[in-house]
Specification:
heterotetramer; A: about 325 residues; Rossmann fold; seven-stranded mixed sheet; five-stranded mixed sheet; 13 helices; B: about 325 residues; 8 strands; binds thiamine diphosphate; binds magnesium ion
Chain lengths: ~325, ~325, ~325, ~325
């Protein structure tokens, strides 16, 4: 095993960017406030890049999300590998035409003549009292859109490895960073390389129940593990890591083994990503389950400002334990 | 097209009224910053300290029923528009007595009674909605006007363009007020905006556009009066670019590394508030006593509001099922 | 029963608009090409309105979807009831910030002080060889967004009744018109009034299987009924009509009765609206079903141009019959 | 800033080359319209008949490696850019030998070899992407330029604004070519656009902007030459508003009720094609024979392309799993 270093998600992203830009002169960065003059991005993840690689490769933009993604698409078609930042996931809405109608579709609509090796980094997540327009989890929308991959890391090693893969990927990837996971330190191999997209990670093996999650909710699932162990429940915890395409095989194998499934995400539960996973498990493993697939997600509500409401908006480890216990019957 | 040469000059009482609004904004901002720093308010705070003149002068020209649509950096716009401070404080503290029951918070403060119709956290999004407020004023056959407040950075987003075009085309009674503080988060004006004066963009919509010193109440009065009069007279929208500066960075805690010490110091030295106060007294428009009394009253109002807000109860979790739709979402 | 007249969806929409505008002076219309000068909308559904109600209530706009929805929001907050047209559903992407971050959330974020009684009409659907940017079914995105209702009529009576309800509704509604259903004539009661939102319609009762659909796919489900009857299968066909909030009770009652469910929509199957319905049925009726809930939807692909590909993109009545037969075992 | 006073005048061979492109566009458009009317092509068709001069003149000034981003009404732009007609016809017929294997169709024709990089069906969306094409040219250290084609209606959408601002700021080698045909679908220019000349908007981005007669090859040449030279010299973008007219309405089958008979007749009488042909001959730049031969060759090319396209096989359903991503989606 290679040497490990401790870093948080911010540092892992920064490390991935340095490596990717060093390895491939075609890798570019653009977004609001991302040059060093502006601090290397609001969370500092791009810090040092413009100084090292120059203002022509690391470009601070106006607040013009359509122009950002448009420029990234055009440059990508010409063989560059832009990493574009949309500061927060809610602001993908102003660039949605560029992302959905263009980036995701140009390969198909051109019959494979053009491709858009674009990585869109964006940040989201409740818990910071930023209220209704700064914290939504919209990965389900993008997963419903053919032609764009959706990647949701939960820990520093994945932040690094998955970002490297997104950048190398020949197709558009949405890379979702979350306030709940970015600041949490973890062990990362010094030589951490790309982690394949579309592959889930079994965080803990178990035999009684499969818990499926990603992003910040992974941490809450992990926090629930002790309570489950205490109750004598052997839980298998899966970090999806990629939402689209998601790792059906890993999920079905685990669900077939345990017979019980709880899916947990921060996105609103209604018509959320968990529905696809639940529907697929039910369809593929009909008759083999020991109970209904349970989904925990955000209530049908915008993200509230008030702290107690925001707390109530988020699924808690206790609720996860409860849901699992409910299944054990 | 309109010009500012014959614009009226504010009389003494108007100037004092503008000052009253400014000091109410500043005292309130100071109280919020202190409370945030003490950890008794846990919100992200976008102080507008330094930008008081703009909404204070405009609000001195508005009626209660005139409407504004503002942004995350907008509490000064609301206070200028005479929004009561008790529900404001309860809101930023996330309490049930807040204007929005604690659901919206500082970035979405709303108080229709004071004409504060929408507060948005998305850059540029105040403008399209302000058009709709103005459209309603026109359909109502009223003389109401709508104000869209936004920043210099917002002038580069698509919504700006669509909004100004539509407003001009439909001759809407709306004033687009760009509070140009020279920065969008950490990005300097010239690194994001291709033109030297945002007001030049108005010509692309056959709309009058003016760049004014947003820290000078007399200049602001001339421009705002002209724009508001135009709007009330059915002549359509105006773009006002008001040059100013924000003293506390983008968000509280931001360390200002992206500007030089000198420019910051120069801006702070040019603080419009003490300057205007001194001028009011020097010109004989108000006595030291009157302004001191005014300030004391305002401080008492703020202390009361703070007390009220921080002691109001939090909303119950049931509120997550309310106000999604008119009907409550079943549990 | 009241007198019936034959009309198609276009005429039904037009009739609803006339009635709504006559009944309530607060009802307004805005969108591209919608005044009579421009032909009353690309499909002519707004024809006659500007002549009758005036250019101040029926306003042709520039091609500025953000400005359209923004103006509609602002006027709605002041008590008007705008009916805004976004010509095609794919163009909702350029107005997504206004729809999602604003229209849907203002009631909540203002603590109920403001409301946005806005109806957004839009058109979509494959089958016209308009290719990748003019035919997507994105209702699933909006159903995942708290604060906006999503209505998908399939026949003239519903076009009229549901549109009347959307206009009267105190909250934002997305009203989805489809090329596959608009031109098909049907019987509409002369006094057809509002049809409640959130209520499904049982189109045919049956005991063996529940087929759930909406919009254009309803017609294909209806076309499948003969084949099913021939095969001796008694199918219950449900038209959801409203996707959000959807009629859980009607669906669960039917699924509990038949024990078998097939969900059919034109939207891409992956992470599509059918997933929520399937997941919910599985969760609520665990152990009571006679087979897995099946979902038929668009493949994970942009809508293709070429006719045979476009045909292959759409679920056929034969595939519906097949899916049902598969369930009958 | 640039002006057109000293712009060069096209020489005889250039004029003939512009004409060749125009007649190739027109003959091809005619063939497409006939084939659609016969039901042998089943696509929606947005004819650009009448707008030939604009891309023909521009393309006469472009190199093969220069890139364009165009729109649903863009087949004239592609034909002008020397896109081969066989794969074009196969594409609009939805066949596997089409440029896009039949997947994109007329609104998304793409042919990188000819520099046709993106064709979009969303109004305004050519501009942001063209910026990226130009950015790549700059990063490559090449002298390549990018053209964004769009309509007058598109100048009112947000993407226009964001794109022009960014292009000016980054000094991108892009030319924004607005083909102002006076209508957006059925909406007249003045009912959607607040300013009398779209080119006036350029000033809002410190960018040169020109309004030219888009039906006059000499005027077009002066403007296009100036803009392209500026771009190649690293001086940044230009906005060209080219006034023209579309003879077959918005989409084939549209009945033109939204314009007066007189204006339509006047525009048709002013058809740039026969006018330019007559002038070429009158000025001694080309003989009647040469132009007739040219036209015959083009007609033969089109007949061959049509034959090829309509006889190419349809793609198989497997194509729905290809080109979503680089790797095929498993069945
Ligand atoms: C569409 C969008 N993009 C990005 C952001 C993040 N953001 C918040 S404030 C801001 C800067 C805005 O600057 P300006 O318009 O000048 O207003 P100021 O903050 O200076 O008052 C940015 C980029 C946002 N809120 N919305
Ligand atoms: C964002 C968006 N809104 C609406 C449409 C529908 N639409 C297609 S073409 C068109 C008119 C465009 O007019 P203009 O830009 O002048 O180009 P022209 O068709 O005249 O060449 C409209 C409204 C669209 N394609 N995209
Ligand atoms: Mg600013
Ligand atoms: Mg046009």
């Amino acid at each position: 095993m290679s040497e490990m270093v401790k870093m948080n998600g911010l540092q892992a992203i920064n490390a991935a960017m340095f490596e990717a830009m060093e390895a491939d002169p075609k890798v570019l960065v653009l977004g609001e406030d991302i040059a060093d003059r502006e601090g290397g991005g609001v969370t500092g993840t791009m810090r040092g890049l413009s100084t090292k690689f120059g203002d022509h490769r690391v470009c601070t933009t106006p607040i013009s999300e359509q122009a950002i993604i448009g420029a990234a698409i055009g440059v990508a078609i010409n063989g560059y590998k832009p990493v574009a930042e949309i500061m927060l996931m809610n602001f993908t809405t102003v660039a949605m035409d560029m992302i959905f109608n263009h980036a995701a579709k140009l390969r198909f609509m051109s019959g494979g003549q053009t491709s858009v090796p674009l990585t869109i980094r964006t940040l989201t997540g409740a818990g910071w009292q930023t209220a209704g327009q700064h914290a939504d989890h919209l990965e389900g929308w993008f997963a419903h859109a053919a032609g764009i991959k959706v990647v949701c890391p939960s820990n520093p090693a994945d932040y690094k490895g998955l970002l490297l893969s997104c950048i190398q990927d020949p197709d558009p990837c949405l890379f979702v960073e979350t306030g709940g996971t970015l600041f949490v330190p973890g062990e990362v191999a010094v030589d951490q390389g790309p982690i394949p997209l579309g592959k889930a990670r079994i965080v803990q093996e178990g035999t009684d129940v499969t818990i499926i999650s990603y992003s910040t909710m992974m941490l809450r699932c992990q926090a629930a593990l002790a309570g489950l162990a205490e109750a004598g429940i052997s839980a298998e915890l899966i970090d999806l890591r990629t939402i689209s395409p998601w790792d059906k095989q890993a999920v079905l194998d685990s669900a077939a083994k345990t017979g019980r499934v709880v899916i947990v995400h921060e996105a609103v539960r209604n018509f959320g990503p968990g529905a696809e996973i639940a529907a697929t498990i039910n369809e593929e493993l009909y008759g083999q389950l020991k109970g209904p697939v349970r989904r925990l997600g955000g209530p049908y509500s915008p993200v509230p400002f008030s702290k107690p409401l925001e707390d109530a908006f988020l699924v808690t480890p206790e609720q996860i334990v409860e849901a699992v216990k409910g299944l054990m019957g | 097209m309109a010009d500012l040469k014959n614009a009226p000059v504010p009389d003494a009482e108007t100037l004092v009224d503008i000052y009253r609004r400014m000091i109410r904004i500043e005292r309130n901002d100071d109280a919020i910053r202190k409370t945030v720093r003490l950890g008794r308010l846990t919100m992200p705070y976008y102080s507008a300290r330094g930008q008081e003149v703009i909404p204070s002068t405009i609000s001195a020209l508005l009626n209660k029923e005139d409407q504004i649509c503002t942004i995350y950096r907008g509490i000064h716009d609301m206070v200028a528009k005479d929004m009561p401070l008790r529900p404001l404080w309860a809101e930023i503290a996330g309490r049930i007595d807040g204007t929005c029951k604690g659901k919206g918070g500082p970035m979405h403060l709303t108080h229709p009674e004071s004409g504060v119709m929408v507060t948005t956290g998305v850059v540029g999004s105040s403008m399209p909605i302000a058009n709709g407020l103005a459209w309603a004023a026109k359909l109502d056959g009223s003389k109401r006007v709508a104000i869209a407040y936004f920043g210099d950075g917002a002038s580069n987003i698509g919504a700006f363009h669509e909004s100004l075009n539509l407003a001009s085309l439909w001759k809407l009674p709306v004033i687009f007020v760009c509070q140009n503080n020279g920065f969008a988060e950490h990005t300097r004006y010239e690194n994001a905006t291709s033109v030297d004066f945002i007001s030049k963009r108005a010509a692309g919509y056959a709309m009058p556009g003016f760049t004014v010193d947003g820290n000078d109440p007399v200049a602001m009065y001339a421009a705002a009066h002209t724009a508001i009069a135009r709007a009330r007279d059915g002549e359509g929208p105006t773009l006002l670019e008001c040059k100013t500066f924000r003293f506390f960075g983008h968000v509280l805690g931001d360390d200002d590394f992206y500007m030089t010490k000198e420019e910051k110091a120069a801006a702070m030295a040019d603080d419009p508030l003490p300057k205007f106060r001194a001028k009011l007294i020097a010109d004989g428009h108000a006595t030291e006593d009157r302004l001191a009394k005014m300030q004391a009253d305002i401080e008492a109002e703020i202390a009361d509001a703070q007390e009220f807000g921080l002691n109001s109860p939090f909303p119950s979790a049931d509120e997550l099922r309310r106000d999604i739709f008119a009907e409550e979402i079943p549990a």
